[in-house]
# Entry
Amino acid sequence: NTPRALNFGAGPSPLPLSVLMKAQTSLLNYEGTGMSVMELSHRSKPFMQLMTHLKSTMRELLEIPNTHDILLMQGGGTGQFSAVALNLLAARAPRRQAYYAVTGSWSKKAAEEAKALGVEVVEAVNGAKELGGYTGIPPAGAWRLPENGGKAEEEVAYAYYCGNETIHGVEYSMPETLSNLNSFLPVSVPLVADLSSNILTRKIDWTRHAVVYAGAQKNIGISGVTVVVVRRDLLDTATPEHIPLVLDWRVCAQADSLYNTPPRRWGGLRGLDQRAAEKSSLLYRTMDESDGYYRCPVDPGARSRMNVVFRLANEDLETKFLEESVKTGFVQLKGHRSAGGIRASLYNAVELSAVEALAKFMREFQAGHP
Ligand code: PMP
# Structure
């Protein structure tokens, strides 16, 4: 009997045991249908009910108002890099300009994809240039955003940011840091947020966000589904150009997210801001109390509650840390290959007890390798 791994993966993330057990028991017979959910027609009543339930749960948990529609799409976060550009160029035609806040690898990729698709990308800010690396959210003075008034409304299609940079462990401390965007950006310009790695962990201000999207594989469930919340007025417009069907928000909305065969099986989760803060602060505290043995490269004000990144004195010691962590039962603590170091991802399904075990391991490792 292998014990459950203490999984700190950056996505896919661990799933609650109760969800896995339920999936196991209903695998051969979902809700008395004599079939698994994977075998059900996506037009069948039980499947439609599952979709409706899913959307109403999302609406309730995230307090999404009726001004916004919930779409369930495929193609992951990466698909939305393209979808955001294509749909908003169409909805906001003839505007072609968009402001991107680049605070890590994911917003950088999104900006590059938009540029490749014909968006005139303006870098609202670039963390690497301002701070010498993606180690925080640059201060208000460093931002370049369109000024209020007619010009922005005429020219700017949308503004874009990534709420939590999964690789660099940089998170906007909403709503405070968001005021950078809020105070400079005209309200008439739609604001887009990639919340792939911190959705369902805190409240979202829907009066300010026109589009929010997130892949499900971190804080919600498993990969295959992408949640896209779009303000309805952006779905009303006539599209002058063809958008690939699987990326077209309007096609998805009109078909109630069942235009084509969707992927199956979700684990619905209640994400708690407080729990995220409690888990992450335990690790940051362990670092702060380590006399510099563990170093977090991220500014205290932008330290992610979801992806806690840290370094040891040198790479040899980091390798030893990772080897011993595996022997102790931890998996997937290695930092992203582009960033190095250690990364512990603390999505909703990661138990506090696992984080406590990690903090204890960190202290013991330090004592054993002074
Ligand atoms: N945005 C963020 C913030 C991410 O963390 C990721 C994936 N880790 C993506 C976008 C890309 O998502 P996907 O792998 O679902 O395409």
Remarks:
- The chain has two domains: 37-254, 272-368.
- The CA atoms of residues 19 and 267 lie 6 Å apart.
- The longest strand covers residues 120-126.
